[in-house]
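Hey, can you fold this one?
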Amino acid sequence: MIAVTQHPSFRPLARSLTAAAMVAVLGSPVVARAQDAPAPTTASPAPKAESPAASAEISDEAKQHFRAGVALLQDPEGEKVEEAYREFKTAFDLSGSPKILGNMGFCAMRLERDGEAIEAYSRYLREVPNIDPEERAQIVRDLQTLQVGVVRLTLEFDRPGVTILDERIPVRGARVTNAYGPAQTTKIEIGVRPGHHVITAKLLGYEDAVWELEAYAGSRDRHAFTLHEPPRPLPPGPPPETAKGPGPGPWILMGSGAALLVAGTVTGVIALGKTNDIEDRCPNDVCPRSFDLDDDRATAKTFVRVTDVLLVVGGLAVVGGAAWYLFGGSGGETKGDKAKAARLGYPFRVTF
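Sure. Predicted structure:
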């Protein structure tokens, strides 16, 4: 929404139109005015002479938009100046009747579109004859005030189609916002009210460009906007490849070690049995003649050696498999992490 403020020197006539006089306004040089409490009046008498544009045929569509604009200014809930301005502008674009310019100038002045208000009022006074003397005098005073205070801004862009959003930030009260465009060329000129302004250039597909300035009455300024395309997002790459864990290797190693331990246990039992058998059959190292002591001792020693090997190798396999499983890989570490560690000089973890 656009906040509408009233300049202290702008004193619009307390004048409005009744529904019966709306159409007559397009045939006479009366401007629809509205205040907080509008007083319905009748239209002024038809002019003695009309310009060619004023006497042109007015379409029903243009009349409908004009009626809508007047109704919006007379809304019981309060003037809807922004909407009324759009309706009057549409009616003017359709009809070309300069008599609508008075309404457009009034609304533009209330909206702080001072450049457009000056243009509309100037053409209205120039092209419409037989304006009510009181109304003409009021418009002349408003026009003089506007011309003294208007700030002329020339805004340039590096591409056409830009829309300008002008936001005036007053010391007190609500902000006043107006939109201009889209511009058909790479330059637009606007007239604004003095004060602190934040002007934003907008174009679909480009980042907003902002210009902030302190505008002084009667000054002129120029600014060139450069619009940039937003940074394009990087194409989605493959997800970081997580370094795989140790896999089945540790389990295989621990399983093999466990099997060797079991085998070592069996051979140990056999070796122990052989030793006990020798002791039983040869008490005090005295053996019967039929007993081959050397052969049984050699067999027992072989089982003892095999047992020692199986138990040692099996134990190492179990311990090594467990260490591999616990310290051999980190599921959360990525290849990128390893590469980064290499660039930083960090040593890699030593794994089995």
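The beta strands are 16-17, 40-41, 151-157, 163-169, 176-180, 187-192, 195-202, 209-215, 220-225. Let me know if you want another pass with a different chain boundary.
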